[in-house]
Amino acid sequence: MALDLEDKTSNNNDLTNNNGVTEGTSSTPFVASTSVAVFSRASSQYFSMVNSPSLRPTSSFTVEGWVKFAATPGLGFTYDLFQSYNINTDVPQKRAGIRVYINDSGYPTLETAKNTGNGEGTDFGQVQWGFNICDDTWRHLAFVYNGSNIYIREGGTERATASWTNAPAYQSTNYCLIGALRTDSLGGFGTGYANGSIDETRLWNVARTNAQIDDNNSSELFGNESVLQAYYPYELAIPGTTTSTSSTTSTSSSTSSSTSTTTTMSVTTSTSTTTTSTSSSTSTSRTTSTSTTSTSSSTSTTTTSTSTTSTSTTSTSSTTTMPLSITVENG
After folding, report:
1. CATH, domain 15-232, list 2.60.120.470, 2.60.120.200, 2.30.29.30, 2.60.40.1590
2. What is the pTM of this model?
3. pLDDT by residue (tens digit) across 74-111?
4. Nearest CA to 154 among 106, 114, 104?
């Protein structure tokens, strides 16, 4: 099996270049995931995409995915998870777009910039969760901008927030990458190559809530979800394997039995012709009523009805009749 480079949305933001990234199958973040992307910093591995409009959200956005890194990047290095971003060579330089990464201390970081300059708090906003996540554990990270604040969420919990009211803006040259940092100011690729595993990279052009993120971060998507702009599960498995199991069983059984038997005994002495007939009526009748047993897990109800066949023997000769009536009631 090989890594799947397709974007599962209809935007066709496929990974057009795989620079050496390999497939991992022995450790995945959740059951439905069968492949993850494994990056080596020593080999300068990364993915790139074409700079399309759907990769450049201009208002709110969410970038999310699973990551696992065993070692901290170290001084001067970062693990870049996703960028739709550039810093140009103008004087002063201008930051533009979206960049999410793990900084040199192992802290998850979100930067969003409006292409006006290089000043933090004015030209770009940044938020950082001051916790080293590089402990060889799978973690789900979400980087969110809602129009007034930027957030970092991990495992469904808000970890860091900062005020930012400026929407991202982009330069005509905009680099879209997973696993590396590239800007014009660097003259190409910098020190942002990832060194570990990444899975389920998703870009939305809406600020997703904690509940929405937590609801499907451990399942694969279909790819046709509303406002989903790019989706990379990195595997050939059919998306949409979200499994929700709910079983409620309610069983009710009530049986009432009422038996009323009336027997008329007739003794006939005769040597004449005997006629035997079978009819649907009988001198002995039994009525059983059983309520339906229903199970919400779609158990079909079976009702059995059995008719009683009676045999009556009638003789047409001299007859001595001895009536005996017995009535039995059960119920």
Report:
1. 2.60.120.200
2. 0.73
3. 999 999 999 999 999 999 999 999 999 999 999 999 99
4. 106
